[in-house]
Amino acid sequence: MGRTYKPLTDRLGFEVQRREALRVWALLNGYPSVPHRGRLHNLTWEFGAVPLDAATILAPRSAALGRGTDSLVRLVSRLAQIPGSCHPDLLLWVNRTLCREVPLAPSWLSVICRVVRAGTSSGATDSVCAGLAAVSSRLRQGLSIFLEGCASRSSRSGVQPPSRSRRDRAPSGGHPGQSPSRDQPPSRSRRDQPRRRGRQLPAGICHYDSAFFNSTQVGYCSVLDEAGFRETFCGNASLLEPLMENPANSWLGAFCAASPTTEGPRASPSPAYSVAAHCLYRDWAPAAPTDPRLLSFCASEDSELFSIAVCGDEHLLRQNPWLLEYCEDLALANSPSGACEYSQWEQHRPDPSIIALCRSSDTARFNATVCASGNLLHALGQDASNAWLDSACATPGRCRYWEWIAGPLVPASQVSFCADLEPSNFDLMVCTSAALLERLLQDPGNAWLYQACAVPQLTSPAPGVGAQVSSSSPWDLIDSMTDLCHYDSWLRPAAVDSTVVALCFNNDGQQFNARVCQDPAILQQLLQDQNNLWLVDLCGLPSFEEVNGSVPSAACRYIEWAEVTVDPYLVDFCWTHDQTNFSRLVCRDQAMVSKLLLYPENAWLLSACHVEGSANTSCRYEEWADAFVDSATVEFCSQYDLDNFVQVACDNSTRLWELLDNREDGWLAAYCAHAQGDGMDLGLMCTYSSWSERRVDPTTLALCFDHDQSNFNQFVCLDPALLHVLTSDPDNSWVEQDCLSLSLPTDPSQTDVCPVHQLISKLQWTCSRGPWGPCPHQVLQLTDVPALVLCGLEHIGLKMHSTAADELTTGLTGAMNNVILGLVVLDDERISFLQQARSQVLYTLLDYLGQEHSYNTKREVLQCFGSVILDLVQKDRGTSGVSLAKEYMKLSAADLRVALLAIDVQKVKHLLYLLNTNWHSLQIQNDLKRILASVFLHRILLIDPSMFPEFVYFLPHLSTSEIQALPETLDKEQVLAAVNQIFGELSDDQRRAFVQWILNSGRYSNVTTWPLRFLHHVGNLLVYLPFERFQLLSRTQILTALDALLATKLTTVQERFLIRTILKGDKTIGTSDFERLGRLICSSASRDLEPYKQNLQMFAIVKEQLLNCIGDQIFVPNELLSDFLIRTSSIMNQGPLVTNELSSLAHLLPILGLSFIKQLHPAHIQATLPELSAVNLSSAQARAIIDKMLQNVSITEELLTSLGSTVVGLSPAILRVIPSPLLVHILPDMAAYERILSPVQKLVAVNTLWESDNINALKNLDSLTKDIPLISLKSKVKMLLSSANETAQMKWSVQQAQMLFGAVLEANNYNMTEDMLSSLGFVARGLDCATLKHLMMLNTFLKLLRFFRDLPVDMPTSLRRCVLEALNSFVLTVEVMQNMQPQLLLDLQLLKIRRFSIRMTHQLLQVIVKNPIPFLKLPSSKQSLMIDWIVQVLNLNGRRFSKAEFDLLGFVIAFIADEVFMEIPRTEIEGNLLKMKDYCFDRQKKLLLGIMLTEDIMFGDPTNWTSVILDKVDRLVFFLSVEDLQKLPKDVVILERVEMLFHSQRQWEQSTFGSTCQQVMESSDLDYLFRKQQILLQMAVGLLGTGEWQSKNDPVLTYSILRTTLPSAWTTHLLTGMADNDFMNCLEMIGQDVHFQPFELFQLLERVKQIYRPVSTIPPQVIEQLGRVATQFTEKDLMRLDLSDLGAMAALGKITEWTNRKLNILFTTFLRVNRLRVDELDAANLVSLGHIICGIKPADISGINPLQFSMAVLWIGRLSLSCDESQLRVLAKLVTRTETFGDVSQWKAAEFIEIGSIAAGLPDIVLSSLVKEQIEGLTPTAVATLPPKKLSVVFSPAQIRMFNYEQAVAVTPAQLEKLGDVQKKALDMVLTSWHRTAVDIRGRSSGRNLSASLNGVLLCLICNLLHTREEAQM
Asked: Terminus-to-terminus CA distance in the chain, angstroms?
């Protein structure tokens, strides 16, 4: 843009800006009485089969058609006002009204206006007048026909068009000069009119599917569509209640309660309501309430007189706050009794419209009172309608920090508010001001500033207090400056941090200038750090070279700019001081320039580097939503990115209003009024002929000068009178001088311009026929228009034959009649001619829709002419219906909704019929089904319940609220039949909603009265009754519906209720009913089944069902098992079982234990193997079965293929002897049970197969593929690449994929395409960052994201970081989010997430809820901040949740803030306990939930809890405090129920969700849980509080009892007192229990020694079961152990609690027993050693075979080894040999990942030389294994900044203590990398002005980082 435009607020004031913006907004949205700019040529279609002269169809591409035909009607009706006869003032009237108020959307209108102007100036008024009269006559005729058709169509659809306002009606008599009639109020001049006219509401605004945000719209629709409004809202509480929450809509209660209106204003197709009859303002009583509907009607239809009559009536305005939108009475706003009483706003929150009015009309007082009050702003901001306040109040006077020092102490709430509102400015003004900070800290409410603004060096700890700062006494920050700013010590390298430099400059300026700025030596030292470059400017240095002694390129390291975020100040500095290198190395690097232009502060690079078309990189419009956009950015984009800026800012009314909230952007109103996507609409904007009659906005004047200089010179510069008028405005003083500079010819005769040719050139049309050749006229005339129309039609693609061309040349009037008649032909069935054309039009249109590529065009055709086309389809009765339905299904969800709402109701029904008829063939997408269901429900089913049979397919796509809103009149049995038909497609919430809908009806609200026939219809839905209703079912009802109940998933509470109800009392049931009980038997108590025990048939039923439950992994109480299974004769006699008996007891074997298995006959085991293979066995049990079976049989293919779960019992010794051809057959089973296989078992199997060179065998490895050692993989890379398809399908680990990808890349000469990458499958996980960035182009961006999203494995951390860096170059939208892997999306920095729009935030929440595991792995701080943001967007703060919101949040409910959590309705908690017991709660939430469970509103005091309550609470009982646990009644806490609670807790812990949750739990939380479990168990068996336990009262423990509880929850006295068989059965379980203390383990080991004496007789199989018990062996015992079995050795190697001495003894014992030397150890031996490898002396380690160790290092490197530094060093040497991985300098990330913790042994010089790619390969275990001193020595701060979060969080406290301050700072930056966008901690600033805020930003950020790190360590 050639001129910089001043903001309008500087010249015209805020009110003018807002009025102009309102006009623009109305213009963009097509409101009546506001000119609609529209887009030229919106629609393009070709009716080749229909002759134009026959069908008379002409479809102009106008935006009017895009919004229906209303805009066209308004346009034509305006033209029709032209009188039919000539009048002297006719041309003047047309020029001043029509040509100024009607838009130039159709090009022919501009032609008319230019003809009128030319005729006026030339005096040819007669000929022009005659032409216009003819046009007017034809248009009135066509308009009359068309309006009748509209009225007919509207009456059929049930929606009435609004009457036109008085100012849209022609004056009486049709003459512009005629006086108005007596019935009409006198017209007023523009000066007499109110300053703002009432806004006219558009037709079609009553779309009831969308929320009303404006009370005006509610009132409007209740008047003009009373029937539809009542039907939609008055009968639907879920829709009415949100409206009633707005005080302005309080009248709706009385409105809906009253009968429909029979008098007063009523909707009608024509203006049937007389304004004069109803808008009787003088008769309105001052005190009596006026009907709001009448107010809305008069405001809409009589806005001018309404404004005068009402806007001065305070009483009416206070009763109806929404009227303030129409009024601008400053006296009311300033009156103490008026609406702008700010002192009352905190107690009585005003309507948003009042706030908006007061902001505009009472700006000064509003800013001083509201904007300056943090509490009030916070309260108002709770309403989303007031979100604009944040930007509107963002003025320099809002947070007046300079007044905080001298004035009264500001409230703490104001300090907190300013810190949240403008953190950067707050840091600058507060955190860096010692005096102000000290003053604020006098208020205890500001204690949070200690952490927010603290610098550790500033604290002066009191004696004995350490580093803690007393909160009772403020810091003496000013005195501390002397201690902090030791300038004498700043000469030493790295002596001072850049933060301290900035802090001293800001708070010790005088000394700083004297001691630093004047000392070249200090300056030279400081300037070596680029963070201090600001000193060059602020110290007034002559040049950088003169002070620093080096060239600027030393500071301007351009080669690093591609990898880091560059501060704008540094960019400016380098350009200033190193322009030559900057131009060569930066300006020529397009990617780098694009990156720098992301910051508006660098916009100057566009001219400096001569960049063309790069505005888009700086104008990141996707970030403008819901964010404050600074004025510099807006102005920059409006100048350099006109096309996109107009589309984003001007064409989006919501965005425009957001921008206009900033007063500095006020110029946008005039700018957008004239701007178009392809430039400026000069014809509409630069109407020079009217400028002498009105004031011209200075922005408009400047735009016309810049973009229309030729005409500007002709009509302005050469017109002295106009020039004088314009320059009288001081803002236009430049015009006169600039006019002198124009060198255009001044004599019109000297120009050779043809108006027709010039117009066609401006329109950029190319025509084969038209007005080319000699210029027809020097002045544009009416006879030129037909030729222009022909050219325009050809340009938009309409083919004209000669007949049509001849008709068009007869005049413009014929063409206009064709438009009107064409629409009527399609829209009005009363016209009976051209019926043949209807069919031709339909099929031509369908063909066109099928072939047209423009989505927008097809969308607008379907949205505008949907009713017409469906009417033609309905009458056609051919195949056109299917074709049309398919076209509708190609629309997006949002566009489909608009299209459906535009169709007449009857036509919607026909569309529903079409969809039902062709449901399966259409294959409709789910999001479209959701839209269809919602629209059909509201538009059809709620109005006509008889249509329900057509609606069945859409039931699964209704929301729960929509289900409950189904018409009550629907036949319940019919609905239930339909629900049962689609039961499997419904979610649990939808099923509950259908049940609630049934209960809400009066007839079926009482469950006890449900007839048995109705129960049959309810069927599967019975399970979803609320439990309080479910437990009302009678015994008879239950038995009737039993089959349906058992066919669904019952909860434990429901099952226990059902079986108790059936078996209770003296009523017994027959055998047939008893057999129907099914799995309910497993939930019964043993005492309830006692009466049936003597009946052999029923006893057999119980036994069979219990075995089925065990096989289905359904919990069965131990007592029930003992009474009906374990104590049966076939088991208790301990005799040999026959095969059939053993087969039936197969699922019982894990419960019977190891001792029972050992007595089985091998032949019986082999015969029962098919059943045993499906049983979940422990490792010891599986090994016993395998060993027993192999006593008599050899290993065969048949045996190996049938092992199933027993495969875990194959010892390493057995696996070693199985040849690879046979070993292939157990791979499927090994892959299925890979989780419980030991590393030795995996290694032996994988190595055996790997040596076979059989690619098909390797393909069968499945999940074992990742266990192939990297050193082995190297040897077969070529073979794998030759079998690319098989290799791509194998599930490689990260390091394997990286190695293979590197090989693929090398084989393809380092050329990689997107298609090639997609073909690599799992190998693509190894993609390197450089290749990825090369592939991440605009056209492949989404496809790559989608590819990685669909890979069923996580992306490596380094790859995710790389993708996130690449994402900075793209716009983050909902579509991008949907294509991102969940973990990748959650890795986004928090600042970027906070810029999400509301829709994107909802999408983020959906991703989190659907993918909980990645979220659970996030840092706890990021989890909390992210969820706080989501809660804020959902507006859940400070109010209770609705059920929909509770369901929307899902498990995220556990992560919301405590105060928000406490606001959850208790009914929601009680109704969702089944879900909540699976959530992941932290310690505080557990405490809160435990308190909530004991509230009276829920379950009350625990002393009154029943067994039913305990069943409902389930494992959440462990959230109760210890005190509340001990209050539980003894008759409720029985062993059977405790077993169930333990089982529920164990199920959750073993689930993926629960196990992930436990990984992030503190060990203290786990110990606290165990303590509660122990208390509950001891309460159940009577051991709690009994003092000394008496042996006679001790329970007898068995394996089955310990199996259902926890061994460590029992006392060692009871455990060691068990029988030998029971104790040995439990040994494996005892050895794995982590809660035993060392002294307890010692007692347990002594019990083992009692069974096996001496120690040398303990079999290896028993040693394998000992687990932690083995740690109590003495050194002498360890020397005697039989360690000949690798399985036993591997079990001991897993233990981490060995002492160094015992580790050495174990290793030497292993060598001695197996008669091995160190150099003979193979990979399997080394892996079995595990932690015992640290028992090898360094000298012996060097003797290990390097190749064998490299094969074992995959597993050894995963261990947190306790080896000393010398051992680690020797181990590391083994993997750096030539025959292994070679020199470390050649390693990539893959090698480091492979060796894991062994990397800690690499030499210091090697580690200190690692580059980014290598550091990315360091595992967290390796980082934690590094000796503390070594970590601090080898890694520089720059290397530490390369860590990922997992690496950084692995740093131990001991390591952290050894790190230097700068290293700690670098580590903290990594730990909070998710919180900031820039690595440069100075953040984004404006270059030269950075110094003033630098120290504050640094100080506050570092404090925040330190605080976050402390949280991470807690």
From this structure: 57
pLDDT of residue 182: 30
**Closest-CA residue to 1655 (of 1617, 1623, 1615, 1682):** 1682
Cα 1225 from Cα 37, distance rounded (Å): 74
C-alpha 1752/C-alpha 1685 separation (Å) is: 18
Please report which residue ranges of 508-604 form alpha helices under DSSP H: 509-512, 520-526, 535-538, 544-548, 568-577, 579-582, 590-596
d(CA 658, CA 466): 51
Contact present, 764 and 738 (Cβ < 8 Å):
no
d(CA 1476, CA 846): 52
Contact present, 1010 and 984 (Cβ < 8 Å): no
Q: Which amino acid is at 1471?
A: G
H/E run at residue 205: none
Q: What is the pLDDT of residues 1688-1714, one digit of tens each?
A: 999 999 999 999 999 999 999 999 999
Percentage of the chain exceeding pLDDT 90: 24
Nearest by Cα to 1028 from 1065, 1059, 999: 999
Please give the single-letter amino acid code of residue 246.
N
Minimum mean pLDDT range among 131-140, 1448-1457, 1777-1786: 131-140
Can you give 1515-1565 as a three-state secondary structure string? HHHHHCCHHHHCCCCCCCCCHHHHHHHHHHHHHHHHCHHHHHHHHCCCHHH
Identify whether the C-beta of residue 1206 lies closer than 8 Å to the C-beta of residue 1171: no
**pLDDT per residue as tens digits for the range 692-727:** 777 787 777 877 877 777 778 878 888 877 887 888
Angle between helices 755-763 and 785-795 (to 10 degrees): 20
Query: Which ranges constitute the DSSP H helices of 767-889?
Result: 785-795, 802-809, 812-827, 835-851, 855-876, 880-888
Instruction: Give the amino acid at 1584.
Output: L
Q: CA 289 → CA 243, 329, 357, 1026, 1349, distances in Å?
A: 20, 21, 23, 46, 61
Query: In DSSP terms, which residues pair with 680 in a beta bridge?
Result: 675
Rounded Cα–Cα distance for residues 1376 and 1366 (Å):
13
Mean pLDDT, residues 243-272 taken together = 56
Dist. CA 906–CA 1663, nearest whole Å: 81
Largest distance between two CA atoms of the chain: 131
Rounded to the nearest 10 degrees, the angle between the axes of helix 1239-1250 and helix 1746-1756 is: 130
Q: What's residue 1509's pLDDT?
A: 92
Q: Is the pTM of this model over 0.85?
A: no
Q: Answer whether 333's CB lies under 8 Å from 15's CB.
A: no
Q: Which range among 107-116, 198-207, 1620-1629 shows the weakest confidence by mean pLDDT?
A: 198-207
